[in-house]
Amino acid sequence: MRRKLAAGNWKMNGLAEALSELNELTVTYGEAPVDILICPPATLIDRASEAAEGSAVAIGGQDCHPKTSGAHTGDISAEMLRDSGASHVIIGHSERRDDHGESSALIAAKATAAYDAGLIAVVCCGEHLSTREAGETLPHIGKQIAESLPDAATAENTVIAYEPVWAIGTGLTPTVEQIAEVHDFIRAELIARFGETTANGIRLLYGGSVKPSNAAEIFATSNVDGALVGGASLKAADFSAIIDALVAA
Ligand code: PGA
Question: Is 216 helix (H, G, I), strand (E, B) or coil?
C-alpha cells in the first residue's frame, strides 16, 4: 500500500506572517494517516521546520542546484535544504522548466543531488495545452519521466507529480478519465523501467487547480496517491479540506 501524500507548494508566496497558516496545520495534524508536506519559499524553510517539528507536517524546498556547493550565486543546494530542516524537494516544476529553461537532464541531476542529500525528490512532469491538443500527451510524459528520473529512483526517495501545465493556476482541470489515463500510463512506464516492486511503491500525485471542491473526485481516480497543491495550499482551511478528502479517499 502506498501511503498517500498531500503536498502544498507555496511558490513565491509567503512572508513570516504566513507561518500562522502552517501553525494551524501543525495543530490540526499532530498526527495523520497520510503524509503532509508544505514547501514554503526558501526564506521560510528554517522557521517552518522549527514550527512543524513534532507534527505530521513535513517541510520541503521548491528547487535545488545539482551541485553541493560552489560559485552559484543565488542557488541553493539540496544539502542546504536538508540543513534547514527540509525532508523533500520539488524538482522540475513546470514553472522551473518554462521560466528557467530547465531540461529533463538537469532535473535528473537535481534529483540525484536530492538523493545524495537524503531528500525525497518530488519530480514533476506535465504537458502544455498544445501538446494535449496535438494528441501527444502520453509520449511527452513518457519522455519527461524517462529523462528526469535517475536510475537510482526508488519508492523511498521519489514521488512523481503529474501536473498538466494548462491546469496550473487556471481553475481548469482534466477530466478524471484524462487524469487516470496519464497516471496509469506513468505507472506502466515505471514498471517497465524499475520493476513491479519499486514502481508500485512510487507515489503519483496529481497537480493543477486541486481545491476542496474537486479533491474527493480526483483522489478516487486510478493511481492517484495524493496531490501537489499550489494556490489552495496557502490557506490552512482550504488545504485542511484537501487533506481530509485524502484521508477519506
Ligand atoms: P495550483 O498549482 O494548485 O495553484 O494550480 C499547482 C502547482 O503548480 O503545483
Answer: helix
Q: Is the CB of 14 under 6 A from ligand 1?
A: no
How much distance in Å is there from the Cα of 132 to the middle of ligand 1? 18
Say how far residue 67 (Cα) sits from the centre of its chain.
Answer: 21
79 an active-site residue? no
The model's pLDDT over 61-107, given as tens digits with 9 standing for 90+, comes to: 999 999 999 999 999 999 999 999 999 999 999 999 999 999 999 99
| Residue-wise DSSP of 139-172 | HHHHHHHHHHS-TT--TTTEEEEE--GGGTTTS-
Q: Is 61 in the pocket of ligand 1 (CB under 6 A)?
A: no
* Strand ranges (E), 74-191: 88-91, 120-125, 158-162
Q: What is the distance between the alpha carbons of residues 138 and 40, in angstroms, rounded to a whole number? A: 31
Query: Is residue 10 part of an annotated ligand binding site?
Result: yes
Contact 56, 96 (CB under 8 A): no
Domains annotated on the chain, with CATH:
5-248 (3.20.20.70)
Q: What's the pLDDT score for residue 6?
A: 98
The per-residue pLDDT for 209 is 96
pLDDT tens, 116-161? Answer: 999 999 999 999 999 999 999 999 999 999 999 999 999 999 999 9
Task: Please give the Cα distance from 75 to 35 (Å, whole number).
Answer: 28
187 close to 199: Cβ distance less than 8 angstroms: yes
CA-to-CA distance for 114 and 67, rounded, in angstroms?
10
The rounded Å distance from CA 9 to ligand 1 centre is: 7
